């Protein structure tokens, strides 16, 4: 499938390619992801009743932060991304750590497998032209009874002020231009796409990050960053 046919923004891929070599630098551009990764991994492990021994697909895996965390917890992980540079970084880091993670240059719509116990799609939907198509493709590739975990940013005035103006332009937590307000996703929109794809909402929560202490916690406030857990009903 050509780049023109894929559900991808080439400018977004190019932007992440430029910083891909620094995915695993805990003091670099991806420090917020390093800081929140344990919290995300715990959430996934808890809400899926344990990832150990399960087949897990990480959509938009980037340099492999979450994929490795899931592999350490015993999951059989396939990470997919459309950035070849990020995938090279992910493979090199996993190999250096002795972890068995399968990384593949692929869009989720291109995968033949339809037997995943768990699919994760974190901080990715806001970077593609048609996020609802990603959700539909994920739903098709889940086993009956499988779990989908999604995290993204709300399209709200609070998110604009904190995640874009604050994080990108005032504090420099992430590179400027990383997020486009019009592409942010309201929880109601995400829930509707999942219902249309045959998934039921099981949990939603906010994720609060303090850039001064580099600490994160789950909260009931979903006005900025949030996570949602969906399940495909058993046959």
UniProtKB/TrEMBL annotation:
* Listed GO biological process terms: methylation
Its gene name is ubiG
The record's listing under Pfam families reads: Methyltransf_23
Origin: domain of life: Bacteria
Signal peptide stretch: none
Entry binding sites for S-adenosyl-L-methionine: 40, 60, 81, 122
Which family does the similarity line name? Belongs to the methyltransferase superfamily. UbiG/COQ3 family.
Q: Which GO terms describe its molecular function?
A: 2-polyprenyl-6-hydroxyphenol methylase activity; 3-demethylubiquinol 3-O-methyltransferase activity; polyprenyldihydroxybenzoate methyltransferase activity
**Biological role:** O-methyltransferase that catalyzes the 2 O-methylation steps in the ubiquinone biosynthetic pathway.
Keywords for this entry? Methyltransferase, S-adenosyl-L-methionine, Transferase, Ubiquinone biosynthesis
| Reactions listed under catalytic activity | a 3-(all-trans-polyprenyl)benzene-1,2-diol + S-adenosyl-L-methionine = a 2-methoxy-6-(all-trans-polyprenyl)phenol + S-adenosyl-L-homocysteine + H(+); a 3-demethylubiquinol + S-adenosyl-L-methionine = a ubiquinol + S-adenosyl-L-homocysteine + H(+)
Enzyme class label? transferase
Listed pathway(s) = Cofactor biosynthesis; ubiquinone biosynthesis
Lineage, uppermost ranks: Bacteria, Pseudomonadati, Pseudomonadota, Gammaproteobacteria, Oceanospirillales
- List the EC numbers from the record: 2.1.1.222, 2.1.1.64
Name the record gives this protein = Ubiquinone biosynthesis O-methyltransferase
């Amino acid at each position: 499938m050509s780049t023109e046919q894929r559900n991808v923004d080439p400018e977004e891929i190019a932007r992440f390619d430029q910083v891909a070599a620094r995915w695993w630098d805990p003091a670099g551009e991806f420090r917020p992801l390093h800081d929140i990764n344990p919290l995300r991994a715990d959430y996934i492990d808890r809400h899926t009743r344990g990832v150990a021994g399960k087949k897990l697909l990480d959509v938009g895996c980037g340099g492999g932060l979450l994929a490795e965390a899931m592999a350490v917890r015993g999951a059989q992980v396939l990470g997919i991304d459309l950035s070849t540079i990020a995938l090279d970084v992910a493979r090199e880091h996993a190999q250096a750590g002795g972890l068995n993670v399968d990384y593949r240059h692929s869009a989720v719509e291109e995968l033949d497998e339809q037997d995943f116990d768990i699919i994760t799609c974190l901080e990715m939907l806001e970077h593609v032209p048609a996020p609802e198509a990603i959700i539909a493709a994920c739903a098709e590739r889940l086993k009956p009874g499988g779990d989908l975990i999604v995290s993204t940013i709300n399209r709200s005035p609070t998110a604009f002020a904190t995640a874009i103006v604050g994080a990108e332009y005032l504090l420099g937590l992430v590179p400027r231009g990383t997020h486009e307000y019009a592409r942010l996703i309201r929880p109601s929109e995400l829930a509707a796409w999942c219902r249309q794809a045959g998934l039921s909402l099981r949990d939603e929560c906010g994720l609060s990050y303090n850039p001064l202490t580099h600490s994160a916690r789950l909260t009931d406030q979903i006005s900025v960053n949030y996570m949602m857990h969906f399940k495909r009903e058993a046959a």
